Each structure stands twice: as C-alpha cells, then as structure tokens.
Amino acid sequence: MENETTETSTSGCGSLILEMGALSKMTGDPRYESAALRALRKLWSMQSSLRLFGTTLDVESGEWIEFSSGIGAGVDSFYEYLLKAYILFGKEDFWRMFHSAYVAVQKYFRHGPWYHEADMRTGKATYWQLTSLQAFWPGLQVLIGDITAANSSHREFFHVWKRFGVLPERYLLDHRMIHPTEKYYPLRPELAESTFYLYQATKDPWYIEVGETIVNSLNRYTKIESGFASVKDVTTMQLEDHQHSFFLAETCKYLYLLFDDSFVLENNYVFTTEGHPLPVLSAWHEKLPETYIPTNWTFMKRQPAARRISSMSLQVCPAMTLNSGQHVESACHIPDVRSDYRCLTDEDCGVDSTTCRRRSCSIAGYCGLWIF
Fold first, then answer.
1. Of 65, 70, 217, 223, which Cα lies nearest the Cα of 133?
2. Which pLDDT does position 219 carry in this prediction?
C-alpha cells in the first residue's frame, strides 16, 4: 500500500508456512506454500555466522534493521513454525533448520532458566529482560522432549505471575523490577499455552493447579460485566476498555483444553501461533523411507513402568525420602549456572535445594546463601 512501511519482523515473514502450506494441501494449488517457503528460505539465508537472527528487516533492501533479538516479540513464532512445519509436513529440511536455530538459542540466549536478548552478530547480551511473549518457549520445548528445561523456565514465569497476580509485559531481570512503561497485561495466552503442553507431557497435577491459579487471577482482576479487560498497570490492576481477540482464540482455549483434553485425546493436531488446530495427516507428509514405516518395525514387550511421584505435585521442599524408600528431589531446586559455583552476578546463582532460598553472588565471586 502507498506509504506503507517496508519494515517487518522476523516472526512476521517467517510464520506463514503452516497456514499457507495447509491451504496448498487442501486446494491442490502449490502457489501458497511456495510463496511462504520463498520468504522462509530468504530469511534463513540472512542468519549470522552464529546462526542467529535479528528482530526486524527491510523487505525491499533485504537488510537487517534491528540486530538484537531473543525468543520473544518479533522472533517468537519464527522458531515455533520451523518445528511445527516439520511435524505437520514431515520435511527434514524444517527439522534441520529448527535444530540449528535451537542450539544457537540455547548457546547464546539462555542464562539458567531465563533467556536474555543478544546481538545476532556477536552473541553478546543486549537486554536482560523477561517478556510475556517468551512464556511460549517451554511449550515449544515440550514438543521436542526437552521437558527439564521447559519445566525450569515455566516455573520462573509462574513465579512472576504469582508475585504480581498476572504476567507483566516486560520485567527487567538485571534490575528485578517491572519495565517503567510496559506494566500492562493484555490477557496474553503464552503461559497458559505452556502449562497445557507440560501437563499433556507429564500429567503432573501441579500444572492443573497452575491453570487454576491463572483462571482465578483472570476472574479476580480482569472479569467485567461485558467480558474480560486488559490490565493497564499490573501494580494497580487498573483496566483498559479493550479485549484482544487472542484472549478467546488462545488464552481461553488453552485453559479449557488443560482441564478437558477430550478434543486432543487420541488425535494429532498442531496449533498455529494464533491457537487454531490443524490436523496432522499422513497424506500431507512426504513418503517416508521403508525403515520408518511402523509395519516394518520389530517390537519388544516391556514391563509397565511404575509411575513416578512428582516433586512438583507433592510440593516437596527440601528433598526427602518417602516411607516407601523413594527419594524425591526438591521441587524448588535450580542449579547454579556453573558447576564450580563461581559467579559474576546474582543471576548466575540458582535456588538452594535444602532451604528453597535463592542463592546470591558473594564479593569473592561464589554462589551461596549469603543474604539473610
């Protein structure tokens, strides 16, 4: 359009393949999928030597505008769609792209259970902040089986939710405070989404309790006569005269499915970044090699494994041994970033498994329970 900006985000041009690919499969017209693939491949070719991507680019010049990025706003669904495209269409190219990008994210963005932002060219940290959009990441990790990392990050997001009653849009990790101009909560779904995925993967009733807390908060702080209102300031719970469509499409949907998963039971679906389910159909997949066809597999019967008791659902802290002799790890334990307990800041230190208190960095540069 005339006078339209030529700037777009990585997620904006990299999150088309699910919908356009499905449209091509349903209509038999390959043009939609081809257009989405062309944009995705162009974007992939613009990665840095560290296999990182920026946040925004110019669609006419093909040059990056914002070099700093993370897993949140402007980039989030780009990573999401690489993996989900592999699940939906079965093309190995999507998996190789996602795996490469995921390894780079874990290497340059991850700091304990948190994810900061970094410069795509150098890998150097730029912004130490939690954003509400990052809360989708644990759900994505569930899809690749990285449950431990997903649970660790999810627990931190939920801790911030409980502290403020809802999840603020931006929280400054280095200053341990809410961003002064981004104190709002627009009824975002990402924490509910990750809670749904983690419950599906673990069946740990603790995640049901998390969902109940989210529902109670929404009813307590955001429910009004005509619907649910966005929170303008989480410190005062002042409301706005606005309800985003994603509240119905995603937030309510994921919470509903958390408590009643009959829709997804014994069915395979991939949810788009706007919460719309697409069926995983064998007809949409490329033909697999003979060795991958289940009818050619050899199976061996195994004894049913005893169900493990979850420390999260038992709220165990500290670690303890049950009467049955089973050792249950502490639910609160978060290891220090380094195995030798050395640190530069408090962010390098975890949560003590015995007292469940957050450890801090001493003047000498060691993590411990120094603050009383």
1. 70
2. 98
Could you tell me which of 273, 188, 195, 192 has the C-alpha nearest to residue 231?
Answer: 188
- Find, among 366, 372, 334, 328, the residue nearest to 353 by Cα: 334
311 band by pLDDT with thresholds 50, 70 and 90: very low
Pairing verdict, β 117-119 and 125-127:
antiparallel
Alpha carbon distance 324, 331 (integer Å): 19
Cβ–Cβ under 8 Å, residues 123 and 50: yes
Most confident of 73-87, 260-274, 320-334: 73-87
Exposed / middle / buried, residue 166 (Cβ in 10 Å: 0-12, 13-18, 19+):
buried
15 vs 322: CA distance, rounded Å: 48
Residue 15's alpha-carbon distances to 19, 41, 100, in angstroms, are 9, 12, 17
Question: What's the pLDDT at 300?
Answer: 58
pLDDT digits (tens, 9 = 90+) for 62-78: 999 999 999 999 999 99
CA 255 to mean position of chain CA atoms:
16
Q: How far is it, in rounded angstroms, from Cα 98 to Cα 83?
A: 6
Q: Which of 39, 44, 42 is nearest to 16 (CA)?
A: 39
Catalytic residue numbers, as ranges:
169
Asked if residue 309 lies in contact with residue 326, where contact means CB atoms within 8 angstroms, the answer is yes
Over the stretch 251-263, which tens digit does the pLDDT of each residue have?
999 999 999 999 8
Alpha helices in 3-54 (DSSP H): 10-14, 17-27, 31-45
Cβ-in-10-Å burial (0-12, 13-18, 19+) of 44 comes to middle
